[in-house]
Amino acid sequence: MMLHKNFIDGQWVAGSGETLNINPSDTRDVIGRYARADRAQAQEAVAAARAAFASWRSAGIQQRHDILDHIGTEILARREDLGRLLSREEGKTLPEGIGEATRAGMIFKFFAGEVLRLDGERLPSVRPGVEVEVSREPLGVVAVISPWNFPIAIPAWKIAPALACGNCVVFKPAALVPGSAWALAEIIAHSGLPAGVFNLVMGSGAEVGETLVDSTQVDALTFTGSNTVGRALAPRLVGRGARVQLEMGGKNPLVVLDDADLEVAVHCAIQGAYYSTGQRCTASSRLIVTAGIHDRFVERLVEKMQALRVDHALKEGSDIGPVVDQAQLDQDLDYLRIGREEGARLVCGGDLVERETPGYYLSPALFTETSNAMRINREEIFGPIAAVIRVQDYEEALAVANDTEFGLTSGIVTTSLKHASDFKRRAQAGLVMVNLPTAGVDYHVPFGGRKGSSFGPREQGGYAREFFTIVKTAYTAS
Ligand SMILES: NC(=O)C1=CN([C@@H]2O[C@H](COP(=O)(O)OP(=O)(O)OC[C@H]3O[C@@H](n4cnc5c(N)ncnc54)[C@H](OP(=O)(O)O)[C@@H]3O)[C@@H](O)[C@H]2O)C=CC1
Ligand SMILES: O=C(O)CCC(=O)C(=O)O
Oxidoreductase as a keyword (predicted)? Predict the structure, then answer.
């Protein structure tokens, strides 16, 4: 089996060890061998990026545009294969895997366009005879640390804007998903980028991640992952004057009001809570339902849940693939136990499921009779588990929706324009969804949350430049 190497300073290099990558839908299936970088290699990657920065920052925008556009074209041409690899490795279903690969291609295309749209401003000074120019410059070396749940799209929406703005990149993917990361890196490596502008270092967070965080040659870190890790890393970067952007967890509410279209409400709940095995920071894990529709909603939701097919991610007809690994499955089972101990009623699912292939299969679970104070409604579970909270009216629903330490996405299902408009104004979240699932976002508009979910400027869309550039104000006597 071929060893997939790290990519440092334009060269493919073996690591100090190897990682084997396992298919969560079939744990007998070894996907590949991947080089494991150590601290020294992480430092070499940073040094290569630093050395490449001076020329890359002043490279023509046509060159930058063409390279990013080429990467996008290549990803789109290979989306079926990339999607298949992603699904085999991470466990989301094949349509979801191909959809994610497509999204990554579109992201590179979008940021190719952004290269040409990086603008500045020229203003009159308050002093006669002086002109003021405001321009944007790249930061330098950007470390990208990404999670396992979107192994191509999240790296894409960090790497593409970083390069578009003239930065060099050191990319450390999650150790669980080196296959997708390597495939993406291979496309980037052959795109015509000068050596050192883009580097891949596969390895653990504790070793490679920590080295990047503490390297004084790293100017910025863009991180997506758990709150525990994100919050611990941020002060270290801020403390040495580096920039940091964090996308972390969610405990996203989906409010269902009495006047909701029942089918829309159930569709949003199924999509938001259970697709991608619930392993999305945008997943709806709290279903906040007003009393008048509560019983009908639960009954119809359970009916639909029972029809969901949990099976091998690559099997045609699978709606929900496996949980990503044993550790995440243990976490999910723990929360199922905690929910029961807290007095919540498990009305559907939560069972380990046996299929033809040995995998981490868990049937989608629904708790009812829960309160917002329960741990299952306060802590991110990151699995196919949701809880219904019964409320009396819209005002109570809104208060419960906002009563969380997180603030990524917040959804409402209603036919009332008044309540929809009010919810858009008062939901304490970075993203608001009306009659749509809380998960599943566009690639060309800002993405990010409030409170404990995010830190730093928004990712994605034109707003991404706020993080990946630094503003300069120049005064000239005319
Ligand atoms: N909001 C989101 O999008 C996500 C949230 N999560 C939440 O986090 C939980 C745990 O998932 P997990 O993937 O382990 O999340 P982590 O936060 O541990 O991992 C995210 C990334 O950070 C790296 N990392 C871990 N520790 C360090 C460190 N000390 N210094 C630098 N980098 C580090 C990881 O590396 P490596 O894993 O390779 O060691 C990975 O690349 C999930 O159960 C879920 O609740 C997880 C993924 C995405
Ligand atoms: O819901 C989406 O489209 C994005 C989700 C995401 O970014 C995440 O789970 O990390």
Answer: yes
Tokens of 390: 């019964």
C-alpha of residue 147 to centroid of ligand 2, in Å: 11
The residue to mutate among 224, 226, 454, having the most atoms of ligand 1 within 8 angstroms of its beta carbon, is 226
Tens of pLDDT along 22-76? 999 999 999 999 999 999 999 999 999 999 999 999 999 999 999 999 999 999 9
List the catalytic residues: 247
What CATH topology corresponds to 3-248+453-477?
Aldehyde Dehydrogenase; Chain A, domain 1 (3.40.605)
Give the whole-angstrom CA distance, residue 418 versus residue 272: 24
| Ligand 2 pocket, mutate which of 146, 177, 280, 458 (most atoms under 8 A from CB) | 280
The closest of 161, 157, 181 to 171, measured between CA atoms, is 181
Question: How confident is the model over 245-282, as pLDDT tens digits?
Answer: 999 999 999 999 999 999 999 999 999 999 999 999 99
User: What was the ipTM of the complex prediction?
Assistant: 0.95
- Residue in 353, 285, 345, 282 with CA at minimum distance from that of residue 319: 353
Pairing of strands 26-36, 17-23: antiparallel
What is the CA(146)–ligand 1 centre distance, in A? 7
Whether residue 468 contacts residue 219, with contact meaning beta carbons closer than 8 Å, is answered with no
Q: From ligand 1's centre to the CA of 175, what distance in Å?
A: 9
253-434 has CATH 3.40.309.10 classification: yes
How would residue 299 be classed by pLDDT, with cut points 50, 70 and 90?
A: very high
Query: By C-alpha distance, which of 456, 32, 421 is closest to 202?
Result: 32
Q: Within a 10 A sphere around the Cβ of 417, how many other Cβ atoms? A: 9
Could you report the per-residue pLDDT of 419-443, keeping only the tens digit for each? 999 999 999 999 999 999 999 999 9
- Is 461 in contact with 447 (CB distance < 8 Å)? yes
